[in-house]
Amino acid sequence: MILALIDNAFLSLIGTAIPASTVVVLAATGAMLGERVGVLNLGQEGLIGIGAVYAVIAVQTWGVSSPWVALLIGMVAAAVAGTLFAIAVVFFRANQVLVGLALALGGIGLSNQLGTNRNGTPITTLFREVNPGGGLDDGGILEAFLHHDPVVYVAYLFLPAVLWFVLTRTRHGMNMRAVGENPAAADAVGVSVVWSRLGYTILGAAISGAGGAYMVLSFTPTWSPDIARGRGWVALAVVIFASWKPGRVVAGALLYGTMISLGTTAQARGWNLPFLGSSDLSFFLSMLPYLVTLVAILIPAGAAKIGRRVRSNRAPAALAVPYSREER
Amino acid sequence: MSTFRLERRLEADARQAALTRIGGAVAAMILSGLLLLLTGRNAFSIFWEALDAIFGSQRGIEGVALRAIPILMTALAVALSLRMRIWNIGSDGQFLFGAFAAVGVGIHMGGPGWLVLIVMALAATAAGAVWILVPAFARAYWDVNEIITTLLLNFVAVQLVAWASLGFWRDSEAAVTQSTEAVPYTLADLPGTDRLSIGLLVPFVLAGILWWIFRSTTIGYEIDTIGGNPRAAAFAGIRVRRRILLVMLATGGIAGLGGMLQLSAPGAQTLNSGFSAQFGLSGFIVAALAGAAFMGVIGGGLFIASMFYAGLVLQTKGLSVYIIFGIYGLILTGIALGEVAARYRLVRTQEAVAGEAVPA
Fold it and tell me: Closest approach of chain A CAs to the CA of B275, in angstroms?
């Protein structure tokens, strides 16, 4: 009986954590893609907003009736913003931190402005859940994992698998890594540093935008201001936690999502503890995802330092360093 | 026939870089104005109205100065860390936690007002340093990038302040307001002003002290050396990790003190989750605009504070806060591109015959 209760609570936690962290998985994957070729894009928060608002516009204003098309429109919008960012930092070699923050601010501003009169309007074009397990999972532990919409499976399984394969098993992936580690050497063997940086920054922005679009097309099917609510920043932290590895991105995002759904579960079930004179835990639970994300960055870094396992966990050496042939 | 050609400079000189950054910021503002025109608002007439609202009256000028205090404090904090190429994006969190500590002292401590205010200032400075403690240690000893760690704590600080203002320090007398009890102490008035306190002097004095430290002391020199090339600094025998820790704790402390100054400004005195109206962000923009030069921060801070005040005026004219975010984004991009432009110079070349190489 008690076991069943724990089981139940755990399953509902995981079951809500998976869709809750899909945005973070996508944004972190997008950010990681750019960082692997040496471009730090701090604008994730803005890209999520842009992806989300254009998916909403596609559905509500342009009458798009397929969630996939709306997702694509959100991705294209984020890619356009990502292109402006990429031109500034790759072509003009502007400071990536400054322009990244500018993209975050500009994206938040733009998406909120475009969404001004859309607050609370429900979105009816939605992704539907698919159950690849057939009837296998009913009532079992698989239930939490097998009732999601297709984007979830793409974000958690397909995308990480493809990226892992490309990055570690192909020549193209080797070239990508070279651009992030030692652009001068990559350039010397004929890999175009500028084009791969531009290309992967823009592709990464599109994937991050898909995260925003996913939010409104499935997770919270309505527009609300500041839709990303810090998820973009968490995604950047997840990339560090994941040591720039596609598989670990999923683990890190899921950890964050579990903390988020802990909050919602606690509220739904009315878990109240008197804490510092306040009768509810909601504020503490709202801090928890950020605190846990912070700790999740610190633990591997500390472990790496203490265990001297520095090489495999560190950032691409040329991250955020503009490349200029003339200055080689 | 003469043409123009871009030539790369070996070293961008500081004055040139400052000018191009300012040029980039101004160009971004003009561009924002043009974009506003496209959306059907006459940005330039609004602009003049805002200018009039600022400089047309003592009230306007004081309004700018009032907003300049927190912006200057966070900007000095960010500028200090930037001298070491450390990006403290969490000054909003340190500012809030400083104000949080100041409220705690202010509503619980008794005694003469001047003493309470001093303790509030010390507590706020310490609190700001505490708020950056973990990112500072992680950066100094574990090489954990500070951009994300400092930033994540902003979200925690906002929740903590919301918690205090709705929960454990909530003003129970006023049932409607969602803020803490009011701190019954304020800083002394600045003579000759209506709304300004002596708190306005703090950022100016602090900028002077920082300027002096970096001009005349070994420690300032060491910090600049680390900012230039940390590896060379380590070879030169500078204790890089300790300096990183010191600078990061100081940057947090300055931002925290800013929170106390804002709290003890006339009319403020209570804390709520909207307490830091993007002061950290504005301070970041100022520090970037000034290229981390402390005296430049003063000029840039007053400029951004006027924009901030103008923004408030513009909001009454129907311009949303979101558009102001967008304008901030454009200004930051303008600064970043201006920084790049300083590395080039336009030279006039004589071209004798088309197609013939220009002699170097």
Answer: 17
Cβ pair B326:A294 closer than 8 A: no
Closest CA to B131 of B109, B110, B151: B151
Closest-CA residue of chain B to A282: B163
Give the integer Cα–Cα distance in Å for B203 and B78: 13
Distances from the Cα of B149 to the Cα of A68, B158, B284, angstroms: 35, 15, 16
Instruction: Provide the whole-model pTM.
Output: 0.90
Give the pLDDT confidence of B303-346 residue by residue, as tens digits.
Answer: 888 877 777 777 776 677 788 888 889 999 999 999 888 887 77
3-state secondary structure at position B344:
strand
Which ipTM score applies to this complex?
0.87
Distance CA A110, CA A112 (A): 6
Nearest CA-CA partner of A249 in A292, A296, A212: A296
As beta bridge partners, residue B5 has: B347
Kindly determine whether residue B322 and residue A42, on different chains, have CB atoms separated by under 8 Å.
Answer: no
